[in-house]
Structures are given as C-alpha cells and as structure tokens.
Amino acid sequence: MKKLISLLTAMTAVVCLTAGCKSNSTGAESGKATKPSTSEDAISVVTTIFPEYDWVTQLTKGNDNVEVTMLLDNGVDLHSFQPTADDVIKIADCDMFIYVGGESDEWVEDALAESTNKEMVVINLMEVLGETVKAEELVEGMEGEEEAEEGEEGEEEVEYDEHVWLSLKNSKELVQAIADGLAKIDSENAALYQTNASAYVKELDALDREYENAVKEGTFDTILFGDRFPFRYLVDDYQLNYYAAFVGCSAETEASFETITFLAQKVDELGLNAVLQIESADGKIAQTIVDNTKDKNQEILTLDSMQATTSEDVENGATYLAIMKSNLEVLKQALIYD
Asked: Do 35 and 86 contact (CB within 8 A), yes or no?
C-alpha cells in the first residue's frame, strides 16, 4: 500500500503517545495551518487540504470554540503527501476529520483505525458526492500513465478524479455536508453552522452564475493545458472542451515530442490565444507548446488548483472563494478573444 513504511512509523508513535489534538496551539509549533481556540475543551477539526480547511473556517465563524487544522500546508500536494506521526496523533483524537477519499488517501484507513475518539465524525468528500464522482479520462493527445494499475483479474483498475473541490456545484453539496457534521458534534451551535452554510452557499451560487455567464460570452469553448489537468469537474460544469498533456493525478513531468506537437497544432487549429498550466508548474511544457505554434504569441496563464496552498497563504488571507474568483478572471482571458 502507498506510503506504508511512513505510516507504520506513525502508527508506532500513536501507540506510544496519547496526546490528542485538542490544544491551544496556533500551529506555530507543528508548522500546520491552524485556526486556534482559546478553550481547553475546544471542538477539534482536522482537514487534509486547503478547501476543506477554509470551508470549516467559514462555517464556524462566530464560534471561537473550534480549532481547525490543515495537514497539507507546506506546498506538498495531495498526491505525494505522507502523514507524519504528529499528523496521525492529531487525527486520532479529533472530533471531525475531513479528507478527499481518493487513491491518494489510501493512508487514511490505517490512520482512522488508530482513533481514540469513537464518536468522531468522518467526512469523505468523494463519498458525499457518490455517483457524481468522475473517472479519470484520457482525451485525444493526452499521455497516459506509463504503468496502468491492474485489478485482481488483470483488468485495468478505474482511477477516479480526486479534484472534486474545483467544482462550485460540488462545493455547495460538500459545504452542506460539513455543516451537518458540525451540527452533529456540536448541537448547541447547530443553528449557527446552518446559517453560515446558507450564506456561504449563496456566495457559491453567485460565483457559479458568473462562471456560466463568462462561458456563454466566450469566443472559445475549449481550453488547452500544457500540464496535468485537475479541472475536469470545472469544465464539465460549464460544458467546456479541453486538451491537456496529462491527466489530473499524473506524476509525469516531461511531455513527449508527439504530445507537444499535437497540442501546438490544436492551438493553431482552434485559434486559441492562451496555453494554461497549474500553479506548481515551472512553465517549460506550456512554453514549448507556444514555441511550436505558428504565431508563437499565445499567453501562458495559470489556474490555481489549490493543491499547493500553504499555511503562509492562509495567513495572508487566501480563501476558497477568492481563489475561485481569481480563476474566473484567468478563464475569461483564455476564452475571450479581444
């Protein structure tokens, strides 16, 4: 199983240590992004990624008795995260644990087996969304993984797209599920969580409509990524087409000559004015695509998938809505030809 060695080390530490995650830490000691509480009896919520962390922070506004921790806070994205012993200890005694639930979270099952809080509310985002979760897809020109995983009978195993938070429509459902979970563990403040959820969902609705309008007004109905592509849920929401070098969960960093050539030809064929990439890219693939187009003058634009958001970004005021609004402006640049 992925990350087994590091997780076994963490498990050993859990057996030896019984300190829980209900502390007054601001996150400075552990290096984790944390919304602290001043109470020794604070409700503790542990999240894996930034969107979950921000959603809980927004939903618990008005209640200072909630401590929220984000585990993936140092720029390491979901696909390469390995929990530390401290991470597993923090999960073991928290009141609520929220994680994505895809292949990258295979470590979670063993971590939860060490739980000392049997009343913990656990929210798996992909389970919340159920049958609406999408399988990874290979579109024309995209490079597949070098070694496809096989199931027990030798058939290729289906890998589901983990980037569910990049859909505003999904986010509305996920936020409500988190609010319901908070109400379950803290019934005294249930009305507060539901009020905050209602207000937040209205903001998500409004931004969703802005995306819909931007796509309707766009010159193009296709975007092209010189990168891996974690925005499947977003483009499907608005019936956009896409081309990309790799699938969203790919570990590949070098594109083949055939992939570069195909994508450059697509830019020319469709008359696109931009090549996109995600926030952690070094820009080499996107630039090589541009250099192989006829006009060689396309912009290289960046969409933020929130996979590399750090505790420093949180301290500087990063929020899910702010990043998605910024992504909308980038999308407008890519879709609208002046």
From this structure: no
Query: For residue 99, what are the contacts with CB-CB under 8 A and spacing of at least 6?
Result: 47, 48, 52, 105, 108, 122, 123, 124, 125
In degrees, rounded to 5, the angle at the alpha carbon of residue 115 between the alpha carbons of residues 31 and 55 is 50
Answer yes or no: are the C-beta atoms of 160 and 134 closer than 8 Å: yes
Structure tokens at 21: 């995650």
**Contact predicate 275/223, CB 8 Å:** no
Task: State pTM to two decimals.
Answer: 0.87
Amino acid, res. 118: K
Quick: pLDDT tens for 132-164: 999 989 999 998 765 444 445 556 678 899 999
Residue 217 to residue 215: CA distance in whole angstroms: 5
Name the β-bridge partners of 97. 46, 122
pLDDT score recorded for residue 327: 98
- CB atoms under 10 Å from CB of 213, counted, come to 13
Among the listed residues 275, 301, 304, the one whose alpha carbon sits nearest the alpha carbon of residue 288: 275
Sequence-distant (6+) residues with CB within 8 A of 200 are 55, 58, 59, 175
Tell me how far apart the alpha carbons of residues 295 and 290 are, in angstroms, rounded to a whole number.
8
Q: Can you say how many angstroms the Cα of residue 296 is from the centroid of all Cα atoms in its chain?
A: 32
How crowded is residue 191: how many other Cβ atoms within 10 Å of its Cβ? Answer: 10
- Kindly state the average pLDDT of the residues 77-90: 83
The pLDDT tens digits for 210-267 are 999 999 999 999 999 999 999 999 999 999 999 999 987 776 668 999 999 999 999 9
Q: What is the pLDDT of residue 79?
A: 72
